[in-house]
Amino acid sequence: xxxxxxxxxxxxxxxxxxxxxxxxxxxxxxxxxxxxxxxxxxxxxxxxxxxxxxxxxxxxxxxxxxxxxxxxxxxxxxxxxxxxxxxxxxxxxxxxxxxxxxxxxxxxxxxxxxxxxxxxxxxxxxxxxxxxxxxxxxxxxxxxxxxxxxxxxxxxxxxxxxxxxxxxxxxxxxxxxxxxxxxxxxxxxxxxxxxxxxxxxxxxxxxxxxxxxxxxxxxxxxxxxxxxxxxxxxxxxxxxxxxxxxxxxxxxxxxxxxxxxxxxxxxxxxxxxxxxxxxxxxxxxxxxxxxxxxxxxxxxxxxxxxxxxxxxxxxxxxxxxxxxxxxxxxxxxxxxxxxxxxxxxxxxxxxxxxxxxxxxxxxxxxxxxxxxxxxxxxxxxxxxxxxxxxxxxxxxxxxxxxxxxxxxxxxxxxxxxxxxxxxxxxxxxxxxxxxxxxxxxxxxxxxxxxxxxxxxxxxxxxxxxxxxxxxxxxxxxxxxxxxxxxxxxxxxxxxxxxxxxxxxxxxxxxxxxxxxxxxxxxxxxxxxxxxxxxxxxxxxxxxxxxxxxxxxxxxxxxxxxxxxxxxxx
Length: 569
Description:
By secondary structure, the protein is α/β, with parallel strands linked by helices. It contains 21 helices and 22 strands. The protein has a 5-stranded mixed sheet, with helices on both faces. Helix 14 (318-332) crosses helix 17.
């Protein structure tokens, strides 16, 4: 450092009297200042030290504070941050002698203090001083960054293995996935005991729910479906039994999904039959890894495909209905002569094996199965007034105080569920009829049109599989399409939820396995592996057992040769 630079950087009072006055004028304690250097050519330290530190605390503090301050500061000095000079001064208030600290640049090599003059560095402004907004913003951003870093590092893999439960231990401990673990689950559960509601088995399932449940991430599904031959072998798709009855009565599925690829993968496995055909519609705004997982999954089977036209799906918006229409249009063009179309979402699972479902649908004899009831005054608000998405960040349509015209062709309105089991002839009518097209266009600015579109059209006189308007309401409990347990109906219409609730809907627990299968519905919602992985495992295992048993007891009493029907690698 040159002499001129030295004088610019240091301020030396001319006398002790001047120092005595100035030592009381020190404005701030030592501050934190990121990237501040203590001298030209010196390394940058994460703090700067003010020369008035000891003077301020020595004059204003108690003896204990003085000694502790000097002790801590001298430790910093020993670390090589700077050098010091000390001299004895008298405390004017108490007459006691204490040591005052002097700072100077290390290459001065001496004290400028025969008369106890202080050498001070320039004050650096404290970044957060008088800037509480900056301080709060910095803390928030730092916390978010830390949480994001922990997420990227998959910090749960560092936890004690005793606190982890792997939903798919064979896959999570293998090299086929990205996020590999080396954990053995400490609980073994027999699904027959869960089905029989054995108290010990149910208790174990509750213990598992208290652990840190780890399921496969979207990127793991991408990895495991990259090699279709290996994937189908792992899931034993080629071992799925198939009867002649199922071959003669193929089904079509529309799956509208947007997250949790592993749940969609399990759903497809649970409903898969080589005699059926499956359309997957994923939300255009879904995560890229989720989209990649769906593309890989569809590519592994000749009877599974991605919808040719994808929508950006908004809750309660016409885009949700359009997604199903897109899939149904694609399903109609396939070579598979399916008899019924079924739509599901990613948190659904079947309650019947494919063999049992085919047997149930044959009994319908072309009729449709869905919820359709007369609307209440509250539900009428959904289509008597216009609804629209006003901003790009709105997550659902909002009401506009503009009345809508009556529905076209004097259609009488009914409401129900977005989910259905519909005959092929009825689907053909919906896709080709001008009445259905006009009604679809009229429904575009209504709230949740998927909950009145199907329920209304199925009541139109003369449509295939018509449910006459004169007939009583078909409630969600009477329609076998989809079983949903609402919390306000629990302990009245059905037993309490043993899992968790989300938006008044039960996410089922393992103790409900027997009730789900015995209630009589064909599908159910909601299932979540992070809430209760045992229920999902045991339900799929139970369906596999039923599929095998019914195939053995079927009229053919043998499996069809699957070599000609199973997809090639």
